[in-house]
Design brief:
By secondary structure, this protein is an alpha+beta fold. It contains eight helices and five strands, in the order ααααααββαβαββ.
């Protein structure tokens, strides 16, 4: 779906502010929030795509003002409630208590050596999204393709800035979990993934982009179709 979270950004909000030497965590509460992601992932509350979709459901005005890890908190809370791991009324009571008593100690909990081992393995290396499929790859390197210009309801990785744009397939990576199904509760449904090279001017327009630059974007098979006969792509090699 379309929103302020789109991969390519949103028009009208001004330039992206780059902070020199920005810390990994801006506040102490963000540190445990980072560790909650692999823990809840391990517990089966969500996959990566449904986790992302959970953040996309935030109120746009709140999303734009919230720090990065508050997006994570929103998605984790809602997935944990949906899984039955958190009672909404208890969450409200606990929140009110710690707002009134910010220095109160956190509840004690038992450490899980199995969970610690999982987190130590997944955080540095990630969890693979590679999956086997019987589907045949429709495209190969050198094919000229166009990203279909649709605005799906729900989660997608088909960024708005590449929709309707034409580029050249430069690599085929095999098959992976399909975000448009996995993120919307419809199963993994693996699809082939390709890297497509777009001329910067194709994406941003002549006069707005370096004519010698290109952008490489990974797409799932259903995102693209063969470009109309006679279509060409230009850009940096």
């Amino acid at each position: 779906m379309n929103g302020v979270f789109d991969l390519g950004g949103t028009d009208g909000l001004g330039p992206v502010v780059v902070v020199d030497d920005e810390p990994v965590f801006r506040a102490e509460w963000e540190k445990p929030m980072f560790t909650m992601f692999p823990a809840c992932f391990r517990a089966g509350y969500f996959g990566v795509d449904s986790f992302r979709h959970g953040m996309e459901k935030m109120d746009p005005a709140v999303y734009l003002k919230a720090p990065y890890y508050e997006h994570w908190l929103y998605s984790i809370e809602n997935h944990a409630i949906a899984a039955g791991a958190i009672d909404p009324a208890e969450l409200d009571r606990r929140t009110e208590y710690y707002l009134a008593n910010p220095d109160a100690p956190l509840p004690e909990h038992e450490q899980s050596e199995e969970l610690i081992e999982f987190v130590n393995a997944v955080v540095p290396a990630g969890a693979t999204a590679i999956r086997e499929t019987d589907k045949v790859a429709r495209f190969r390197a050198g094919d000229v393709v166009t990203v279909t210009d649709v605005s799906p309801f729900g989660h997608t990785r088909r960024a708005r800035y590449v929709r309707g744009k034409t580029g050249t397939v430069v690599a085929h990576h095999g098959s992976f979990i399909y975000p448009d199904t996995a993120g919307n509760g419809l199963g993994e449904d693996p699809e082939h993934v390709y890297t497509v090279k777009f001329a910067a001017e194709e994406l941003w327009g002549a006069g707005y982009a370096d004519p010698n630059s290109s952008v490489y974007f990974d797409v799932w098979d259903p995102y693209i179709e063969f470009a109309p006969e006679g279509s060409t792509t230009e850009g940096a090699e």
